[in-house]
Write a structure and sequence with these properties.
The complex is a heterodimer of chains A (about 110) and B (about 450). Chain A has no helices and ten strands. Chain A has a single domain, classed as Rieske [2Fe-2S] iron-sulphur domain (Rieske Iron-sulfur Protein). Chain A starts with a strand and ends in a 5-residue tail after the last strand. Chain A is mainly β and about 110 residues long. In chain A, a hairpin with a 2-residue loop joins β5 and β6. Chain B is globular and about 80 Å long. In chain B, the strands form five sheets. Chain B has an eight-stranded antiparallel β-sheet with strand order 13-19-18-17-16-15-14-21. Chain B has a four-stranded antiparallel β-sheet with strand order 6-5-4-7, with no helix packed on it. Chain B contains 15 helices and 21 strands. The chains are: A mainly beta (about 110), B alpha+beta (about 450). Chains A and B meet through loops of A and loops of B. Chain A: Keywords: 2Fe-2S, Iron, Iron-sulfur, Metal-binding. Chain A: InterPro entries: Rieske_2Fe-2S (IPR017941), Rieske_2Fe-2S_sf (IPR036922). Chain A: This is Damage-inducible protein CinA.
Chain lengths: ~110, ~450
């Protein structure tokens, strides 16, 4: 089921924003070259907030140990030992609202 | 966890080792371990110390590692373009968090021991594993790399102090900035460092090179005679107008000496093109700096900013003598040029300083050996009880001079070195900045005001 997260206009290009939907763990929403990406706001390595990181060359950079995750595929680069790839939620922009399927996180 | 900035104390017995009346210095100041520890506390934990040139870290995340006394420090450009500096030591178990000398666009600094990760702003961003995150008593926001107490810059040069009570950088310099501007403000474009840093170790006490640059052109006639002969084809010569122009000036222990011959120092780099450049620069700079300072840009001269930052106008070598125990220094040297100088002129300065004032440079080798023996012989118990003579030029004060600070006639003079050690004694004696800024080394005008 798609959950409404926020106004898509609030998500600026090149930035990562933390959003909380009732009943779900916090998610991070990023926009890069116009496209929206929604993913858990915790790095798969040490549970740190990815919204406190930043986007660089099409990758989400974790601000804690600097693992880099490719936007879209989630493939990890420069990873600390044991850090898996990042998974993304299916999302879309419906009439100016960001919707995403948060089920896999549950 | 709040930063702890150690308090100063008072060491009057050490201060008395500088005898102003006899113009003598006790040699124990060069070898005694207790005195050295007092220097780290009284001087290096309080004075403003040189960190870097702005041009070395232009972009956010650009950083370098340096020392303040023996304290390892990281200097980092922030995203808002300001500069911060921190102790290079993790607050968890103390491990060094930055291992390299310098770098660009750092994302942060991760401690190699337990993975504690610090942003370029010094704040703890996270830790390894999922251990602390599940500990409800753990307060991440309260933890970070220890920042310096104050940081500021003067015309491109960044300084910091570990003393929250220290006066502003501007007050620490006092009117000595009038002399610093000879090098830092002789051209509208400002300055930059070129060519990286040259590091070396010299087995000497840090005060020997500092006092040498504060006002010892005397040694050039003997120490550097053969080097000068090789490069210049003749002896060191202070010029026909020496009696009329040469001077020493000192403010708060900072000192400069010059013969105002325009290009004497520049000539020793061995490139006639540089000499022409400085002649032109000197002419152009008269509007900015006036006649005296325009003549000083490339002249036979030297300068120390108390305690351990020195440079040579004309040769353009800038350096810090980092203390590494009473009998050892780590010397880091850079080359300063005007940003607007043509590229080939910058290149000639870079090569010229390398050939003269680097570990393999003609003049640096001459000096290093002297300072090593001047330090080492004082290990002799009887030797170290014999005072040293600093009494050249006792009657040369130029009270009528219109230049700022304590001005003395003639650059062949121990005047600046006497005031350097007097400043050293003030730091040993005083535990507060009110006394420190109003003692004998304070600029004459300020001392007169304080006395009223």
């Amino acid at each position: 089921m798609m959950i409404e997260l926020c106004d898509s206009g609030a998500i600026r290009d090149g930035e990562i924003t933390r959003v909380t939907a009732p009943g779900f763990p916090a998610v991070a929403i990023a926009r890069h070259n116009g496209a929206l990406y929604v993913f858990p706001d915790r790095c798969p390595h040490a549970d740190e907030s990815l919204a406190e990181g930043w986007i660089e060359d099409g990758r989400v950079v974790c601000g804690v140990h600097f693992a880099e995750f490719e936007l879209g595929s989630g493939e990890v680069h420069n990873r600390p030992v044991g850090c898996p790839n990042l998974s993304f939620f299916r999302c879309e922009d419906r009439d100016g609202k960001v919707f995403a399927t948060l089920a896999v996180e549950a | 966890m709040r930063p702890v900035y150690p308090r100063a104390s008072s060491y009057p017995d050490f201060a008395r080792l500088v005898d102003r009346d006899k113009a003598q210095v006790d040699r124990r100041v060069f070898v005694d371990k207790a005195i050295y520890q007092a220097e780290l506390q009284q001087i290096f934990a309080r004075a403003w110390l040189f960190l870097a040139h702005e041009s070395q870290i232009p972009n956010p995340g650009d950083f370098l590692r340096t020392s303040m006394g023996e304290d390892d420090v990281i200097v980092v450009r922030q995203r808002d373009k300001t500069v911060k500096a921190f102790l290079n030591s993790c607050p968890h178990r103390g491990n060094r968090v930055c291992m390299v000398d310098a770098g660009t666009r750092a994302r942060g600094f991760i401690c190699n021991y337990h993975g504690w990760s610090f942003g370029i702003d010094g704040a703890l961003r996270g830790t390894d594993g999922k251990v602390y995150e599940t500990d409800e008593t753990f307060e991440k926001a309260q933890i970070g790399l220890t920042p310096v107490a104050q940081i500021d810059s003067y015309k491109g040069l960044i300084f910091a102090t570990f003393d929250p009570q220290a006066p502003s950088l501007e007050d620490f310099f006092g009117p000595f900035t009038w002399y610093l501007d000879i090098m830092l403000d002789n051209d509208e474009g400002g300055t930059e460092f070129v060519g990286g840093a040259i590091r070396s170790i010299i087995d000497c006490n840090w005060k020997f090179p500092a006092e040498n640059f504060v006002g010892d052109i005397l040694h050039a006639f003997w120490t550097h005679q053969s080097g000068a002969q090789a490069i210049l084809g003749g002896a060191v010569d202070l010029g026909k107008r020496y009696d009329e122009l040469a001077f020493q000036a000192s403010v708060y222990g900072h000192g400069i000496e010059s013969n105002l011959d325009k290009v004497g120092n520049t000539r020793t780099l061995g490139y006639p093109e540089l000499v022409d450049y400085v002649f032109d620069l000197s002419e152009k700079a008269r509007d900015r700096l006036g006649d005296i300072r325009a003549r000083a840009i490339g002249a036979i001269s030297s300068c120390t900013v108390f305690p351990n930052f020195s440079f040579l106008p004309g040769q353009n070598t800038f350096r810090v003598w980092h203390p590494r125990g009473p009998g050892k220094i780590e010397l880091v040297a850079w080359t300063l040029v005007n940003k607007n100088a043509p590229e080939h002129i910058k290149e000639l300065y870079r090569k010229g300083t390398m050939m003269t004032f680097s570990p393999g440079g003609v003049f640096e080798m001459d000096d290093g050996e002297n300072w090593e023996y001047a330090t080492r012989v004082n290990e002799g118990f009887v030797t170290r009880h014999q005072p040293l003579h600093y009494a050249l030029g006792l009657g040369t004060e130029d009270a009528a001079s219109e230049m700022p600070g304590h001005v003395h006639r003639g650059s062949l003079n121990d005047a600046n070195q006497r005031l350097f050690y007097t400043r050293w004694a003030e730091f040993m004696k005083y535990d507060n900045w009110t006394d420190l800024q109003n003692g004998e080394t304070a600029p004459p005008v300020r001392r007169a005001q304080a006395a009223e």
